[in-house]
Amino acid sequence: MSTFRDWAQLLRVSALFTVPGDALAGAAAAGGRADLRTLRAIGCSLCLYEAGMALNDWADRGEDARDRPNRPLPSGRIRPGAALGAAAGLTGVGLAMAARAGRPAAAVAGALAATVWAYDLKLKHTHAGAVAMGAARGLDLLLGAVVTGHTPLRPAVALSSAALAAHTYAVTRVSRHETTGGSSLAPFAALATSAVISTGLVLQGLRGRGRDVGAGAAGSVLAYWPDASAVGGPARGSRLSRGLRLSRSLTAPALAATYGTAAGRPYLHAVLNPSPPLTQRAVGGGIRSLIPLQAALAAHAGAPALGGALMALAPIARRVSWKVSPT
After folding, report:
1. Cβ–Cβ < 8 Å for 83, 54
2. Domain span at residue 283?
3. Domain presence at residue 16
């Protein structure tokens, strides 16, 4: 009989911690508040992500029998029909949750679900596969943006979505060589991509241009900071206020630099030695580094407190990945 650990391995539960940040970063970029609709968007994202994991292994069960016979399906620990049923059920639940969040969310979730199924069933082993994966992450962030009720198609949303999509595209290209290794080009391209994204966010933050929704989100629960002028009188409040503003201005570039380091180190190792183990580590590191990227994007959108909160997921994801691989 299948065990909880079997299903945890099939569904890659350690990678789940990279999902909530998509919707939250999208809400921050749109200048909205996190509310019940945002939670429904996160629930939809989690369901569709897990549906994709189950469907991926169902579609690849023949290939895995040759290259990864210890996975739950080729080893017989989970029946193929059960995996396919789980994918269909999770997709249905995810779409229902999106529908409860409103028509815009339902439309984006429908496009996201179609992208996930198309990738797993048809596009994965084609040149369009990595593009589809990147599009899925971009749509996931857009899902969090549209549920806010604010105008989602603003520069902050477009840039955040593009950054997530580019990162995911690069990781997917590296994952093509997980079992065989031998390619330095894919991890080098991923290293360059993460360096460009990280450097761009750092420079943008240092120039003070990374908070194009900051004024509109100042009262948001996503971007709260204490009122320094009410602490210890005007003089002390003024000094404390300047300190808080400085802290806010440094949070975004610091998180961007953290992302660049987290993503770049495993990619560099795979460039220098493109063996299957190091390539797999590069893929896992690329997946987990989505968390600091989401945190940096939220901070640049005017929600530094949210960015710091998202970073709390990083050590949890790392610890769980020691027991259940995210790839």
Report:
1. yes
2. 4-321
3. yes
